[in-house]
Design brief:
By secondary structure, this protein is mainly alpha-helical.
């Protein structure tokens, strides 16, 4: 029978999530809210993480379509791939905070 004292040993991510939440709350109480300019700069940087790979995918796709006379096959595919990579990068960035 478990008394709940060995939460770290059972491999449950819930315990770690609760710890992270408590740490973030303590940091927020200690440091306060981030300034507006810092929030805006984070939004801008996250936006660029999506926009840049998407535009690169579009440019590469247009070049491949013109080179191999494929219509818009590569353009559409690489725009989707670029956006997927961008959203993955945003997710990774948010997870690291």
């Amino acid at each position: 029978m478990s008394d709940g004292s060995n939460n770290e040993d059972n491999g449950n991510g819930l315990y770690r999530s609760v710890e992270q939440r408590a740490e973030r709350r303590a940091r927020w109480e200690r440091e306060g809210e981030r300034p507006l300019w810092q929030n805006l700069s984070m939004i801008g940087s996250l936006g660029w993480l999506v926009v840049t790979p998407t535009i690169l995918g579009a440019l590469l796709g247009r070049w491949l379509d013109r080179t191999y006379d494929q219509g818009v096959f590569w353009t559409g595919s690489l725009i989707f791939l670029g956006a997927a990579i961008g959203f993955y990068l945003v997710w990774q960035r948010i997870q690291s905070d």
